[in-house]
TrEMBL record:
<keyword id="KW-0408">Iron</keyword>
<dbReference type="GO" id="GO:0020037">
    <property type="term" value="F:heme binding"/>
</dbReference>
<keyword id="KW-0503">Monooxygenase</keyword>
<dbReference type="InterPro" id="IPR036396">
    <property type="entry name" value="Cyt_P450_sf"/>
</dbReference>
<dbReference type="Pfam" id="PF00067">
    <property type="entry name" value="p450"/>
</dbReference>
<protein>
    <recommendedName>
        <fullName>Cytochrome P450</fullName>
    </recommendedName>
</protein>
<dbReference type="InterPro" id="IPR002401">
    <property type="entry name" value="Cyt_P450_E_grp-I"/>
</dbReference>
<dbReference type="GO" id="GO:0005506">
    <property type="term" value="F:iron ion binding"/>
</dbReference>
<dbReference type="InterPro" id="IPR050364">
    <property type="entry name" value="Cytochrome_P450_fung"/>
</dbReference>
<keyword id="KW-0560">Oxidoreductase</keyword>
<dbReference type="GO" id="GO:0016705">
    <property type="term" value="F:oxidoreductase activity, acting on paired donors, with incorporation or reduction of molecular oxygen"/>
</dbReference>
<keyword id="KW-0349">Heme</keyword>
<keyword id="KW-0479">Metal-binding</keyword>
<comment type="similarity">
    <text>Belongs to the cytochrome P450 family.</text>
</comment>
<feature type="binding site" description="axial binding residue">
    <location>
        <position position="442"/>
    </location>
    <ligand>
        <name>heme</name>
    </ligand>
</feature>
<dbReference type="InterPro" id="IPR001128">
    <property type="entry name" value="Cyt_P450"/>
</dbReference>
<dbReference type="GO" id="GO:0004497">
    <property type="term" value="F:monooxygenase activity"/>
</dbReference>
Amino acid sequence: MAFLITGTAVLLVGFLLYAVLFTGRRGRNFPDGPPTLPIIGNLHQLPKQKIYFQFTEWAKQYGGMFSLKIGSGNAVVLTDRRIIKQLLEKRSAISSNRPVSMVAQQLITEGDHMLWMDNTPTWRTFRKLLHQDLTETLCNKEHVKLQQAEAVQLLHDMIDGADHWVDHLKRFSNSIIMSIVYGIRSPSIDAPHTRKLIEAAEIWARINEFGATPPVDIFPFLKWIPERFLGNWVTRAKEVHDALHDLYDGLLSSVIRRRQSIGSIDSVVDRVLDQQEKYGLTTHQVTLLAGVTIKGGSDTTASVLSSTIQALVTDPSVLKRAQAEMDSVVGEDRTPTWEDHERLPYICAMVKESHRWRPVAPLAVPHALSEDEIVDGKLLVKGTVVFVNVWGLHQDETKFANAHKFDPSHYMDHPLLAAEYANSADYEKRDHYGYGMGRRLCPGIHLADRNLFHAISKLVWAFNIEKGDDPQTGKPFTPDTSMETGYREGLTACPYEFPIKLTVRSQKRHDTIMKEYAAAQTEVFQKFDKSDFFK
């Protein structure tokens, strides 16, 4: 018995000694990085908010690929275009998994959130089903009519209520993706599903921000500690779960009732339901596929547009140049359309610069390796988490002179659309990383690029956009453009709201907006008024 006790004690001491000496340390031939501590590695050095600023500083010191030890886990941070192309695109078959996320993937979405799924057959089915409705051809031939109409309503809404301009941007982006996915528009920001989605997106972003919950993915034993000692993280996650599922379940049920009443219409969910049995999808999977798509297509576009308007009011010369180009191509008797985009290179450059200057995802959703991989002679073992430091890439002064400044001239030599650069072999010509990379490239890239063009081009055509008055001082209010102090952040970055002043550029343009809005109501919007969701 004494021998057994002694042996057990020796094993325990040995285990603890091993943990202290080796857990948190870099393995042999792992990339360099900041110094580590036993057990926790670099965890103590990671800021709870806006971690990409620290990553950018470390990249200057340790290079375009440096490593972190997060407990016993391995991570690398990429701020190098060549390595991103090599690892995440050319080797996408082994670099398209996601790190474990107990909160986002297990507690909130029960394993069916497409963004957090591994590269599995189910995930590939999800991508396939989405892609069939979001191709470039469909965007150019079908979705463009909806985008044109929704952008006209955006102008109409801005005229009637400039004080609520952020809400109008949210409605615009939400209505397009809602119409395509469910066949249900968002006629106003006060539509039930629009308000619910905005509220759910806000709490989703807060709980998924780095440091918002205990690091249970790194130290699994934490899940056994009563949550009241750790900020009630499980309860908060379940609240997000309930909010999202309440909305998504209601929308799917509405589509099913409509199908039973009048049959199928032209929507993503209708086509998915038609193929549900073929692909063996559960109702929960259909619910999450659709719900995640509308969420992703709503908050990102609105955030990019908010940053664009912030840039325009702080540097009027950009708007002046954009309007000069616009006026040389489009008169006052119509608003710009997608057919004009090739003749509006500065406007198209504004779309790209909006992604670069204040990226909506400054730190891309991390990838994870499913196999060992050698990169530049360094061993990245299976399970290594790969962060892409989008902020650092977009602020690279060797690629973008005066990178801190919103300057569409950065892209006057990039005439192609984002999808073409994302799929190009020439990584040096990649315009920006706003849509992700490799097999995780945003499936809505064609739709999103066109959404931004329609909104930005029409706003430039219609309005003089200036600083609004500070409600406290009555003087023009200069918004804080700093990513450190002027932007709220969860999984996506968005500027804090600020007042603006909108003036329609002429009575003729005002009349054109009203005429096109009336046409949109009769020719486009009525197609989507077939749901009982609002009743």
